[in-house]
Fold this protein.
Amino acid sequence: MKIATRDVEGVTILKLTGRLTLEEIHSIEAQTKELLANGRSLLVINMIDVRDLSSSGIAKILAIKRTLESRGGMLVLSDLSPVCEHVLDLAGLTEAFVTCKNDAAAIALLQDQTKIEPVRAPDEFLP
């Protein structure tokens, strides 16, 4: 698998090309570990050129999603290839991921999410 990385306005985009299977997941794992080590927590994975997606690939993407969310970040999948759409649908995981039609929509969504102010409890509810 090939992974092209680019940063756009605080969002990291990983464009995957090839197969996301057990034999290939080490590439995306190493790439995301490096991003997290560098403080990157807003991630788009572009999957338009993914031609094979296995259960191991899905599990790795879910693990990345959980890790990002535990650190206050977010994962968005963009440009799902027909194969990816089909596999996620068969696995019943379509709703498990935030998806966007393209990278621009994913970037806009992530930037909007970071602008949301946390809700503060009224003072009468604070100890």
